[in-house]
Amino acid sequence: MPARGPYAVAGVPSTQNLTGFTFDDISIYLSGYVFANGYQNVTVSYDAGFLIADEPQTIPATAPYVCTTMARWAASDQGVKYASTGEQFVRVANAPGVAQYAYVDSVYTFNLADAGLDVLISYGYVPYDLEQACIDMIGDWFKYQARIGVLTQAIEQQTITFVNAALPARTLGVLQQYKRVWAS
User: Does 78 reside within a domain?
Assistant: First the structure.
């Protein structure tokens, strides 16, 4: 059996001094790192959507001390900091103190002591048209269950024709706007 080289725990470089990763449809491959042996000992975190970094907001001078993101709804909170110093706030579950905030569904709640101050809020969001395209697609799939394979249906001398496309045309149109084409 061949000797194996030095081992490293995930996140600790191996002797190859390469960094990064690649992936395919079913696997993640580390370059310069190794996964520790065993099962269920690796966590993968994935963020998607668009990032709004440092959106300027002012905490209201009077109650309630809340700020709402400019996006319709935020998909992820990425932090808050004071605009003047860049000092980070700490996220808490509820009842924030000084330099703390609570976050629920695009609403940032602050403490009275921070009232009137300028802050920078960062968050991830999914554009409204993509959200609606997903709703349309899922709605179409749900309705399709009742008519799987049916192309036309006659009811009282009227004929209904169904489109059985993989994606509804309006969903496909929205997705085309976000398509990235790589030049070879």
Answer: yes
Q: Residue 142: count other Cβ atoms within 10 Å of its Cβ.
A: 9
pLDDT digits (tens, 9 = 90+) for 44-86: 766 667 889 999 999 999 999 999 988 777 678 999 999 999 9
Q: Which of 12, 13, 15 is nearest to 4 (CA)?
A: 15
Instruction: Using alpha carbons, select from 128, 140, 125, 136 the residue that is nearest to residue 177.
Output: 128
Distance CA 43, CA 54 (A): 28
Shared-domain flag, residues 92 and 138? no
Q: Determine the distance from the C-alpha atom of residue 71 to the mean position of all C-alpha atoms in its chain, rounded to a whole number.
A: 13
- Among the ranges given (89-93, 114-118, 161-165), the one the predictor scored with the smallest mean pLDDT: 161-165
**Other beta carbons within 10 Å of 107:** 15
Nearest-5° Cα angle at 146, 145 to 147: 95
Report pLDDT for 94. 92
Tokens representing residue 151 in the block = 């192309």
Point out the domain boundary residue: 83, 106, 125.
125
Question: From the centroid of its chain, how far is CA 14?
Answer: 31
What's the CA gap between 121 and 66, in Å, rounded? 12
Domain with 112 in it: 50-125
